[in-house]
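Subject: complex prediction, re-run

Hi both,

The earlier run crashed halfway through, so I resubmitted it with identical inputs.
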Amino acid sequence: MNNGVVNVLLVGVGGQGTILAGRVLSRAAASLGGEVKVSDIHGMAQRGGSVVTQVRFGPRVYSPVMAPGTADFLVAFEKLEARRWLYYLKDGGQLIVNNQELPPLPVLTGAAVYPDNLVAEMEKLVKNMLVIDALDLARRAGNVKAVNMVLMGALARRLPISREAWEEALAASVPDRFLEVNKKAFNLGWEQNG
Amino acid sequence: MRELLIGNHALARGAWEAGVRVAAAYPGTPSTEIIEALAGYPEVYAEWAPNEKVALEVAIGAAIGGARSLAAMKHVGVNVAADPLMTLAYTGVNAGLVLVSADDPGLFSSQNEQDNRFYARMAQIPCLEPADSQEVKDMAMLAFSLSEEFDTPVILRLTTRIAHSYSLVELGERREVPLKDYVKQPAKYVMLPAFGKVRHRVVEERRLKLAAYAETTPLNRVEWADRRVGVISSGVAYQYVKEALPGVSVLKLGLTYPLPEKLIRDFVNAVDTCYVVEELEPFLEDQIRALGLAVTGKELVPRVDELSSVIVARTVGSRVAAFAPELVSPALAPAARAPEAAATAAAELPGRPPLMCPGCPHRGVFYVLKKLQLVVAGDIGCYTLGATPPLQAMDTCICMGASLGVAMGMEKARGPEFARRVVGVIGDSTFLHSGMTGLLDMVYNGSNGTLIILDNGTTAMTGHQDHPGTGYTAAHRHAPKADLEQIARALGVQRVQVVDSYDLEAVERAIREETAAAGPSVIIARRPCALLHKEKEAVYLVDKENCLGCRYCLELGCPALSFNGEQAVIDPIQCNGCGLCIQVCPAEAIRKAGEGNE
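This time it finished cleanly. Structure:
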């Protein structure tokens, strides 16, 4: 339906590394030889707001942004953000969600409540859902900040991009001194089965 | 070699390949990365100017001086630079000059979503609208040649989705363009009325030549497909059209001012029905209608907010689907039918608004402003978030530098007593951008008002760019550091105080003193941006035995502070040890980690 275009939506909270994840994914996708388009939202979003990166790749990609209901993959770095952007996932699309809660300010100040049944609710709505504890896996890899690469690893296994292309993309996007930790995190993510 | 680049980096690359020598800008989303990238090329002099007007004037001087030059700014920055722009249109250039206008449909980080294509029409100069990063680079290069061929500044108009989207770009090498001779030509460059009158005729002749060029340039092209439906589009809107209506014929305009009359007329006449799909205002549509051609545009496509392929599918797409469903993308049909319902479900979740970072030096000042219930004339920067809950201590925010004039106007409207309850609040970068003249007005015209300069030593909102007060240039070289106290005093302000933004008592005392005092006052609340100050202080924690659960600390709106139902909790990962919470806690229940028993 998408003319061979794969749509991946990465959602999270400012500071979680969604933008870097998007860069690694887009570099890896460029190895397929077709077109790649990526759209980030900058500016005020970096101040702890909801962050969205859209990656689209295929033989011919026009719009840098995808339509709701057309994402083949929704990779959510946080549960509330997964629910917020779920309507972007197409029927039969794959949801990968990090089982982590980052309460937004209205919740911290008591003006709102963090929904307590998000995973159960999404399970009813989505056929293909993989819940992973990316924070724990990142910690095991050696750096809590590597949550983004754990999630990329989980995504990578489900995409038609070679392992070598991912490794090259990782090496090109991450400073040398963090490469080993990020590779480890990526591999731990790769091993997650859903 | 092909590389994934955002539009802004493709633009910098194109300008570099085209031999640009001088570039100037004031940071502003979504334009900031252009100068950051150009500052990395050794062949290019790239500067942060104090504001967009100066940036454009520097580019004008460079172009008259014979060097290819570029000025970059966000859409509202062009308002600031509009004065030189309108007369630059008369003088023309010597070497090529490109003005980049990065518009922000959808207001991702702006105070309005004005459509800057109108500037091209007002100034009678060419406007180019690329649709992806490759086109950004190609058009940036072409813009310099056009500028020189037609002796005109050229507007290269990006939008957020072009400026900040990555796509693949073919890289080339730099072509050195030698400096053009500088020849004194007062009749061309000194816009006395007598000379301006002559130059206006030149502008008109140039417009006609450009219109002729528009007919044949490959920037404007027809993509023939089914001739029952034609769509005229430009910029990112073209991509949405291709996505939503893959079967229709398209006239893609890359040069959107002046328009190619014959090309448009022939296209409209060759299709049964013609639509115009453009983001924001009916800029193309109005001009096409003025040619006497029947097209449909803004009666279907919204004038507000950013466009998307779904909106195109829902509006023009559903019209077309009624008689030629095969021309419309089936992939977008479900989203086009029911997008609102899905978005509404998401809207019921707790929002995640942008907020001041943990340890942000602005937080305490707004906490005090709220406590004192002052009327706050605000300005543009991270601190504009002081308007949002729970601080909600800002009454106005209009544009860069407006805090001073607005505070002054309120005082003059409502009298000196009211002035005791009004403060202007502005950041250091914004003050140097366009606050100084407002402060001069307060001195000159006898204000009793108070201005608070939130000096965090950077242009934080756009990603920590340097400015004349930081002591560094765009290329990270040492520079003289503008002294805010001296500037305020030199402008005639006698009462100038400096306080530590983290010291709530000192901030409150200063504000009380200065709002009560006669004459204009300046308070400089100083602390470096928490994101720049990397050394983390010892974090704070809550003593469970002492916490009363009063929630006073939550009034700070600090992301490290939350409430577990009965007591406050501090997240040690987020806490950066600014110590504001310890100052507002009435029960002495917060203390530094490592002090006392744990």
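Chain B has four domains: 2-216, 220-346, 362-526, 540-592.

- K.
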